[in-house]
Amino acid sequence: MNGTAVTVETRPDGTLIIHPRGQLDADRAVELRRTIVHAVRRVRPLRLVVDLRNLHDLDAINVGTLAAACQLGDDHQVAVFLDYCCPTIAERLTAAGVPGYRLRHTAPAA
To answer: What distance in Å separates the CA atoms of residue 54 and residue 73, rounded to the nearest whole number?
Structure first.
């Protein structure tokens, strides 16, 4: 997906990894939401990982999208995990209702 803020890869074990990068704001919200919904509803991997290591910032719309992705995954028997988010984003996600066990490889707050 050249020129986009979101790329997708599939691992040999069937894990689907979504890589958002840069700053996800309202202009990019639709792209992330469509990618996640397509993955959960159509592809239906056993595990969906959203790798947040290359994300500079996340607005409220996309925080809500990631929180909803966890619930959507539960509805469709897809385990959703959010990896490598910074402490600030982890705090926002937790405040939005994302359970702590879904946040993996998160650096502790300084």
So the answer is: 23
Residue reference for tokens 């069937």: 14
CA-to-CA distance for 100 and 103, rounded, in angstroms?
A: 5
Q: What are the structural domains of the chain? A: 6-104 (3.30.750.24)
Ordered DSSP codes for 26-43: GGGHHHHHHHHHHIIIII
pLDDT tens digits, one per residue of 9-29: 999 999 999 999 888 778 778
Long-range CB contacts for residues 95-101, cutoff 8 Å, separation at least 24: 96/63, 96/64, 96/66, 96/67, 97/67, 98/66, 98/67, 98/70, 99/70
pTM: 0.89
CB atoms near residue 19 (< 10 Å): 19
